[in-house]
């Protein structure tokens, strides 16, 4: 699932392409919205909350979308060949000079703009909220500490605690805290975990490349995430790779046992 910074950047690019323009074509290829026509509406702007996208139109109307695992928005000049096959398109928004196509989008819903908050009110503080304050940080830290026995990795992915962390940052935050992702939350400083999460997302919010090491060169961008072959970026040692989470929430998780002391699953395998 995309990280919050990926969704944030998608929202900013959509806003730059569409805001202030009138749609000449606005259609859905989605069972519940197939009869809706947005042509003639002005795009007021695009915003994000955590991993949720909100495209706002004239007439108090907002389109909510979620990328989930495989969704994406592609922005191209009007008339250009689509970046993906047409049967993957779920939303088509076109102006006189640009087209924004939503491919494989999930959770599509049209709601009154005044009510869009109802779709995200269950979330914790948005780590990329431009109005972020110390109060947001304190609330996220309190949310994280509320279940001290919970595994850190699972807690970091819980959008009800703080919104925006995905599997990449889960692994990298655990590494930077020098603990295994299976470590109980009670053994880490929740305020530091929140601060690291925000720092990493803010650092990567305006670029497509995601780096937690400060090095944007290929193969040097993360400490442990997806470094199965290369090993730990800090010590060079083999990484343990195992699933964390239950059912559909399971995610492959990377950990360096040399740099990250703490519990690991019995079926975790050191790999390099």
Structure description:
The protein is elongated. By secondary structure, the chain is α+β, with helices and mostly antiparallel strands. Helices cover 21% and strands 22% of the residues. The strands form three sheets. The protein has a four-stranded antiparallel beta sheet with strand order 1-6-7-5, covered by helices on one side. The longest helix has 15 residues, at 4-18.
Count of individual beta strands = 11
Strand order in the sheet with the most strands: 1-6-7-5
Task: Supply the number of helical segments.
Answer: 5
- Helical residues, percent: 10-25%
Alpha-beta classification: alpha+beta
Distance N terminus to C terminus? 24 Å
Order of helices and strands: HEEEEEEEEHHHHEEE
Q: Give average pLDDT, whole number.
A: 95
Largest sheet: 4 strands, antiparallel
- Low-confidence stretches are none
